[in-house]
Amino acid sequence: MMDYQDLYNTLIQLDGRGYKAYKDIKGNYQFPKFNLIIEHIQGDPFASPSKLIIKISHTVAQFPTEFYKNESRKIALEDYLIRQFSQVSQQISRHRGTGKSGTISIIKIGQEILKRTAANIQKNEIEIRFSVGLPARGRTILGRQAAQMLCEDIPAIVDQALLYQALDSHAIQEQVETVEDADWIRQNLSKYNLVTFIANGSILPRKSGVDPRPLQTDAIPFQSPQSLEITLETPNKGLIKGLGIPQGITLIVGGGYHGKSTLLKAIELGIYNHIPGDGREFVISDPSAVKIRAEDGRSIVGVDISPFINQLPQQQSTNNFTTTNASGSTSQAANIIEALEAGTKVLLVDEDTAATNFMIRDRRMQQLITKNKEPITPFIDKIKQLYTDYGVSTLLVMGGSGDYFDVADHVIAMDNFEPYDVTEKAKKIAQENPNERMIEGGNTFGNITPRIPLPNSIDPSRGRRDVKVKVRDVDQVIFGTEDIDLTAIEQLIESGQLRSISAAIIYAKNNYMNRQNTLPDILDKVMEDINSEGLDILSHFPQGDLVIFRRFELAAAINRLRSLQVQ
């Protein structure tokens, strides 16, 4: 290990030399309050920034141990430090020269609190992984500016963002306690037979479709109907009242623009924790909840969609259904079966993004097109069987078909963003206006058949490169010669999740795809490894841009590989 003064002197000596000479500074440097590791040096000013690591001992950082005494609090504190580092580095770093010169940055994050490799609170120290654009003019090193960045700016960021005495202790306490309470509720939902909980006072609307921050003006605080209101006692906040949506089948109804989809969107993101002030801190959903939609054009490989679709023309089998260009109905059927295969216990469906002919077939259509000529068994005839046969609940936004009143256990009406329990009214309407449509699809849901992915069908290589993986935003992965389109996977929220998922696919192939393990087995083993060893198990070197994901999104990415083969 070298002294920080050695780093400063080396950078001064490099001033004016060619950019590749920056390789000389790679190493480990001791500063008065922290250790700086220069892990990777970028090839030129326009390449991906250099990768650095800060390590601070707990005796220097001095965060009270109560702030990271369990996993919930630790992740909350790590998230807080990432946000502080990001804020201070934006204030301190400035453009210095060509390309990305002068930038000091850390992973970009949103409203959610997730485990990320950018910050790691370990037994004896805190580790922060970040990026630096080493300064140059053209491809000539600006050594003096680099010395200022690494030897002055970074210590200033440490002083302002990573030491307890410099931070707002009340804000830290609020964040760690909020996350601990939210995790406690999520872990106890099944104990209370709930699929989701929404605290009174929550703010569900967002500023816009591209701005996930809470709506500040004219936002109506959420208030549970009294008939569905429950009280939970949390470890820190104490008693919290709110709407408890029970297991089973729940319809969310109401007129257009009255908050149905806003409510469902909050519920689908309730699988994550949120920062204090987000408004959705205590919108808590079953961790296995999966949003389902139609997805025209997607690839489907070897999925048994026979519970929903059978007797296709030309005797095409639906027990092992494969297509490179799925329709709305076949894609929605496959999305449900794949989610069930991965282990979901809650389906979230919005009619606005569903295939109409998959959701309902009314009596008139049944009379015109008889069942022996219609391969699709509509969701309305399978939704109850999903719950009775497999214990899978469904939350369904439905504004256009009252036929679902017959199968719903609860009906919540949204009126100007306020929820009302209209279950009894809906049941009365159903009794007074009997549904004359015929129930289709038999008395049971059908089989859920796990598939075995074949390892040779998963190839991340391209040309001479063994692995070529690139992430574009939060909806596309370039995997070897393929593009994995994840646009329809609405519960993916950060590009770091896609990087982790891409690495997890390769990890799964190398370790667990052996022509014997089923996809659920593989998901179990990969997630167990990550839970015990951390996200670093997916990478051969320290990465600061990996973010935790769920088994369901990993399965979704594997299922959308067009090269995938199964048995």
Compact overview of the structure:
The protein has 567 residues and is of the alpha+beta class. The protein folds into 3 domains: 2-167, no CATH class; 289-406 and 417-432, no CATH class; 455-559, no CATH class. It has helices at residues 4-14, 58-61, 71-92, 143-161, 169-188, 260-268, 328-342, 356-359, 363-368, 383-390, 423-432, 495-511, 519-533, 551-559, and strands at 2-3, 27-30, 35-40, 50-57, 104-105, 112-113, 119-121, 125-132, 136-137, 140-141, 194-199, 229-234, 238-246, 249-253, 273-274, 283-285, 289-292, 300-303, 321-323, 346-350, 393-397, 410-415, 418-421, 469-472, 476-479, 482-485.
List the helices and strands and how they pair.
Layout: E1 2-3, H1 4-14, E2 27-30, E3 35-40, E4 50-57, H2 58-61, H3 71-92, E5 104-105, E6 112-113, E7 119-121, E8 125-132, E9 136-137, E10 140-141, H4 143-161, H5 169-188, E11 194-199, E12 229-234, E13 238-246, E14 249-253, H6 260-268, E15 273-274, E16 283-285, E17 289-292, E18 300-303, E19 321-323, H7 328-342, E20 346-350, H8 356-359, H9 363-368, H10 383-390, E21 393-397, E22 410-415, E23 418-421, H11 423-432, E24 469-472, E25 476-479, E26 482-485, H12 495-511, H13 519-533, H14 551-559
Parallel strand pairs: 1-2, 14-21, 14-22, 17-20, 20-21
Antiparallel strand pairs: 2-3, 3-4, 4-8, 5-8, 6-15, 7-8, 9-10, 11-13, 11-16, 12-13, 18-19, 22-23, 24-25, 25-26
Helix pairs in contact: 1-4, 3-4, 3-5, 7-14, 12-14
